[in-house]
Amino acid sequence: MSKVIIMDHPLIKHKISLLRDERTGTKDFRLLVEEIAMLMGYEALRDLPTELVEVKTPIAEAYVPMLAGRKLAVVPILRAGLGMVNGILALVPSAKVGHIGLYRDEVTHEPHEYYCKLPENIDQRLVILPDPMLATGGSAIQAVDFIKAKGCKNIKFMCIIAAPEGLEALKKAHPDIDIYVGNLDERLNENAYIVPGLGDAGDRIFGTK
Ligand code: PRP
Ligand code: URA
């Protein structure tokens, strides 16, 4: 079964509320997305494995926990997922970064892939898949399909806002991944936008439209 973790930290909720405001401009929007990604990343990475390593402090020798290995990749779903990458990298600077390019057809709302570049040995890594929006779930499902086809087994999907429809679809399609959600919103509208949502995440991050 998918592990679904819906954030309840007041800082995350507050920053998501600021993001929603239509008066929030590109610069602040970008900064907020990055900050939320870092706060969510802190939660999502709480089960990273550690190992005991010998360290000599000024006082004594000790065995202390350090992250075991560096097998982690952050693979944003373009475009909007890019906005979350630096927040996650602030926590794990040595992570490798891949990219999956998908866009939603404006009429059918079906995802279309246009780019993919993944780090080496992706099948041996924990893959963090950030995308601010989980609407119908089509893009996330296709991205996870793709990552799994490369042999990845340890996948965590992170979104800032999810619609119940998209969350159900993703859980059903990929019951073996962990899903981290900043806020679970009410529903989708007739154009498959999340209500109340925040509008088009990519356009708001990059200042397009
Ligand atoms: C947005 C968003 C997700 C997708 C979610 O991307 O960033 O990738 O829509 O919708 P879904 O759950 O119904 O698939 P979009 O296709 O607008 O592309 P963009 O990031 O390039 O703007
Ligand atoms: N993509 C977005 O950017 N926003 C939505 O509400 C739905 C899909």
**CATH classification, class level:** Alpha Beta
Principal-axes geometry comes out as globular
How many strand units? 14
Helix content: 25-40%
| SS element count, helices | 6
What percent strand?
A: 25-35%
CATH architectural group: 3-Layer(aba) Sandwich
How would you describe this protein?
The chain has helices at residues 10-20, 26-44, 82-89, 138-149, 164-173, 201-206; strands spanning 3-6, 50-56, 61-67, 72-74, 77-78, 96-97, 99-104, 111-117, 126-130, 133-134, 154-162, 178-184, 187-188, 194-195. By secondary structure, the chain is α/β, with parallel strands linked by helices. The protein has a single domain, classed as Rossmann fold (3-Layer(aba) Sandwich), CATH 3.40.50.2020. The longest helix has 19 residues, at 26-44. The N and C termini lie far apart (39 Å). The mean pLDDT is 96. The chain binds 1-O-pyrophosphono-5-O-phosphono-alpha-D-ribofuranose (PRP) and uracil (URA). Residues 80, 133, 135, 193-194, 197, 200-202 line the site of uracil (URA).
Task: Give a brief outline of the structure.
The chain has six helices and 14 strands. It has 209 residues and is α/β, with parallel strands linked by helices. The protein has one domain: 3-Layer(aba) Sandwich (Rossmann fold).
Secondary structure topology:
Layout: E1 3-6, H1 10-20, H2 26-44, E2 50-56, E3 61-67, E4 72-74, E5 77-78, H3 82-89, E6 96-97, E7 99-104, E8 111-117, E9 126-130, E10 133-134, H4 138-149, E11 154-162, H5 164-173, E12 178-184, E13 187-188, E14 194-195, H6 201-206
Parallel strand pairs: 1-12, 4-6, 4-9, 5-7, 9-11, 10-11, 11-12
Antiparallel strand pairs: 2-3, 7-8, 13-14
Uracil binds at residues 80, 133, 135, 193-194, 197, 200-202.
